[in-house]
Amino acid sequence: MDSTSWGQEDRSASGRAGDRRDRDGDGRARSARPRDGDGRARSARPRDELGRPLPYGARGVPRQPEGVVRPPLESVAEAQRLLDEGKPFHAHEVFEDAWKSGPEEERELWRGLAQLAVGLTHTARGNTTGGARLLRRGAGSAEEWAAGAGESRPYGIDLGGVVAWARELAAEVEREDGVPVDAGARAPRLRAGARGQGS
């Protein structure tokens, strides 16, 4: 029997037996991931405008702060700004904050908008299957919320226009199979009349 079998275990830098996950590929101890105020792991890796991780030390785009409670009109304006800049991943984080901090009766609205932003993120990355699925799911959620709430323009959002945009984009990316879209050029108009209709 060799010296690493029975009774002798691999020990990490901390001296714990058998915990190889605390070490990186070179055998050095890894540092703990940064945590947010609620204790959730927060990646320190820089990210690009579509939320893809970049190598450590690379210059990424500023991260959207998480857990920000904004008035609904401010959430819509901030998300639109990020969508127009070609940052749908970051816009999804704004919608997610509204979804988590808003009233229970609006959760499905904000969740649907977050799904639309993630769908646009995936189509911009060239993931047509996932992108089309999320665009349709988000459109369905927003449409269902509007029907249940009896409201088609919450906070000035043109839900009918946004739903139509999502379904058209889903069909287009499926036809073009794998061709990434320009996220900024294809961003939806959350409010009718602001720039062109995302075409």
TrEMBL record:
Phylogenetic placement of the source organism: Bacteria, Bacillati, Actinomycetota, Actinomycetes, Kitasatosporales
Sequence ranges of Low complexity compositional bias: 183-199
Composition skew (Basic and acidic residues), residue ranges: 8-51
Family annotation (InterPro entries): DUF309, TTHA0068_sf
Disordered: annotated span: 1-71, 175-199
Organism: Streptomyces incanus
SUPFAM superfamilies: TTHA0068-like
Name of the molecule in the record: DUF309 domain-containing protein
Residues that span the membrane, as ranges: none
